[in-house]
TrEMBL record:
Keywords: Amino-acid biosynthesis, Hydrolase, Magnesium, Metal-binding, Serine biosynthesis. It comes from the Eukaryota. Its cofactor is Mg(2+). It comes from Chrysochloris asiatica. Its EC number is 3.1.3.3. This is Phosphoserine phosphatase. Pathway: Amino-acid biosynthesis; L-serine biosynthesis; L-serine from 3-phospho-D-glycerate: step 3/3. GO terms for cellular component: cytoplasm. It is an enzyme of class 3 (hydrolase). Belongs to the HAD-like hydrolase superfamily. SerB family. The active site is at residues 20, 22. One of its GO terms (biological process) is L-serine biosynthetic process. It catalyses: O-phospho-D-serine + H2O = D-serine + phosphate; O-phospho-L-serine + H2O = L-serine + phosphate. The gene is PSPH. One of its GO terms (molecular function) is L-phosphoserine phosphatase activity.
Length: 225
């Protein structure tokens, strides 16, 4: 059993930190916000709850929800313009501190690249460090599905991204931080998983995580000691 101080040391010596986005880096679930904007909120948020609890395979849940929402390119752009996602308190400072320490920061999300890139720009994270699902549109802007070849479109996809990052950059220690079942299952290959419950507490994740926080200030303090 790894002690808490050993976990903290691993976090403080990590050469890469990967964050989930929905309900972790931002306060909302992007797909639920899109559903609300497109008028199908209730049905979709129930599906999201089941998917995040690990009850439904991720790709099946994503396909089912997007078939209900069918967002157009214009609707996605209007959502970002009129209801931009809210950063979780403390995340801006934490990412900035990690950057100062020359730690690479990645966003790995089962959400949508257009929304995640918007978030990345607010945190000075390069788009090359964003891994998320791509929505597809017909030439007239109507919904045409999503790119099913992205690793983030599947259960276990976040782990595949982390394995790829280790192979590409030869990182020795990668930390994964997130609120959901798909984040928890990314460790291993991640070396440390930190469960985050600052926006929503998912009991399965809280019970399984060796390290669980509800405020990013806790991690900032660890970096400053």
């Amino acid at each position: 059993m790894v002690s808490h101080s050993e976990l903290r040391n691993l976090f403080c010596s990590a050469d890469a930190v990967c964050f989930d986005v929905d309900s972790t880096v931002i306060r909302e679930e992007g797909i639920d916000e899109l559903a609300k904007f497109c008028g199908v909120e209730d049905a979709v948020s129930e599906m999201t709850r089941r998917a995040m609890g690990g009850a439904v395979p991720f790709k099946a849940a994503l396909t089912e929800r997007l078939e209900l929402i069918r967002p157009s390119r214009e609707q996605v752009q209007r959502l970002l313009a009129e209801h931009p996602p809210h950063l979780t308190p403390g995340i801006r400072e934490l990412v900035s501190r990690l950057h100062e320490r020359n730690v690479q920061v990645f966003l790995i999300s089962g959400g949508f690249r257009s929304i995640v890139e918007h978030v990345a720009s607010k945190l000075s994270i390069p788009t090359a460090n964003v891994f998320a699902n791509r929505l597809k549109f017909y030439f007239n802007g109507e919904y045409a599905g999503f790119d099913e070849t992205q690793p983030t479109a599947e259960s276990g996809g976040k782990g595949k991204v982390i394995k790829f990052l280790k192979e590409k950059y030869h990182f020795k220690r990668i930390v994964m931080i997130g609120d959901g079942a798909t984040d928890l299952e990314a460790c291993p290959p991640a070396d440390v998983f930190i469960g985050f419950g600052g926006n929503v507490i998912r009991q399965q994740v809280k019970d399984s995580a060796k390290w669980y926080i509800t405020d990013f200030v806790e991690l900032l303090k660890d970096l400053e000691e």
